Amino acid sequence: MLEKNEVLNTEIAKIAEVAGYLWIKGWAEYNGGNISVNVTPAVEDECQKMTPIADKISLPAVMGHLKDNVFYVTGTGKRMRYVSSSPWENGSLIRISHDGTYYEIIYKNPIRPTSELPSHLSMHNYLRSIGRKNNVVLHTHPTDLIALSHSQKWLDSDAITNMLWSMIPECRIITPKGLGVVPYEIPGTMDLANATIEQLKNHDIVFWEKHGILATGIDVVDCFDVIDTLSKSAQIYLNARMAGFTPEGMTETQLDDLVTAFHL
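and the corresponding structure tokens:
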């Protein structure tokens, strides 16, 4: 029984932990943000035999690299503060069909997944197609990073990456691929998903203009930590500007020294 599956329960506990952080940080107002995690290795044998608890739902494209995969997904209209305290009442397990054309909710409650599920699955599918074993797509709304996206100056991938890298050494170390940037698209659309996939070809983190940020990775806590580090860099920059000066930032030589020291 899944109730006794320690590996799954550990993963769900981490998702709940991160959801709580997002709420406490002020990055998950109302029902903002969403999380999807591929939990197939933890539940594969059990979940292939489970009877769906809701009607099958067609996907907008064939997810050929996600056939028979199982995901925990936060629910549509659900608040992260409640995902934190009651993950099963605010999310569900879904199973992708054997032909990759639809999904079914299989456990525990028939909670409809986030409206951005098609875009999440498109990203998971793309990352698997190029051999990245990323299990997590995490989207949230960090206030400081969104504020920067209201300036055209910071809607250039190199500009925003180098500025954030230069605020603290850890940022360069933790985000070696830098940030991709997607100009504004309507939330939840496949246009936004496809533009994000283009950026994921070279990055693990994608900045959405006037909307938020998306991180992909192997572990949901690590994805949060990466965004948290980028947020700290943004806070340092913005605090310096509010104090009346533009921060110098680390020099190119100092940043290059990190590449050598940490084998980035």
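(Above: one complete record from the training split.) The mean pLDDT is 95.
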